Amino acid sequence: MLETTYLTNNLLIAMPNLADPNFLKTVTYVCMHNEDGAMGIVINRPMDIDLDDVLEQMDIESSNSIQIPIFDGGPVQRERGFVLHQPDHQQWNAMLKVSEEVNITTSRDIIVDIANNKGPNEVLIALGYAGWGAGQLEQEMADNIWLNTLVDNQIIFNTPPNQRWKAAVESLGIDLNLLSAEAGHA
Question: CA–CA separation, 15 vs 126, rounded Å?
């Protein structure tokens, strides 16, 4: 029996053969993966809205315009916000430490702090998330739907969104032209 390897704090890179429009050429940061399933945030799909739009919807005052893009984090609970951020001295109400370098927070207080320039320096704000049931992600990995790599914070926070898929693939040392849709079998 194969040992299960959990992929928390990894990037999932959609293989070119993944036809689901929700995940075509996406990079997903895995926030949680265990025997019950997995949850991640797509990090390379900016929406046509920015934080100013969200602040207006949430009736949060801001002293200045904040042009932080909002990302389509995945097809589940698209009305719910998620903030990926590097650890900070602050503690927010609904914050989960994913790793030593990345936290995820879902509470309103972090948005208020970001609006008032008191939030973390590096953030990615998304609406919705990607979710997998028990064993589903493991099966998709076996079916050659995803590649995975250890997280690179530069890709999440500093690489332009339209270059994140390519940067994640290249971080594996893989030539994009050689990616195949077929799984290897011995």
Answer: 22
Split at pLDDT 50, 70, 90, the class of 2 is very low
Q: Is 183 domain-assigned?
A: no
**3-class secondary-structure state, position 99:** coil
Question: Tell me, what's the pLDDT at 116?
Answer: 87
- Residue 166: partners with Cβ closer than 8 Å, 6 or more residues away: 176
End-to-end CA distance of the chain: 16
Q: Is residue 42 part of a domain?
A: yes
Residue 62 lies in a domain: yes
The CATH code of the domain that includes 52 is 3.40.1740.10
Residues 6+ apart with CB under 8 A from 135: none
C-alpha pair distances (Å), 164 with each of 23, 28, 129, 161, 178: 14, 10, 17, 5, 18
Mean of pLDDT over the chain: 88
Domain count, the chain: 1
Whether the model clears a pTM of 0.85, i.e. scores above it, the answer is yes
* pLDDT mean over 80-88: 90
172 contacts 149 by C-beta, under 8 angstroms:
yes
Instruction: For residue 116, give its domain range.
Output: 10-178
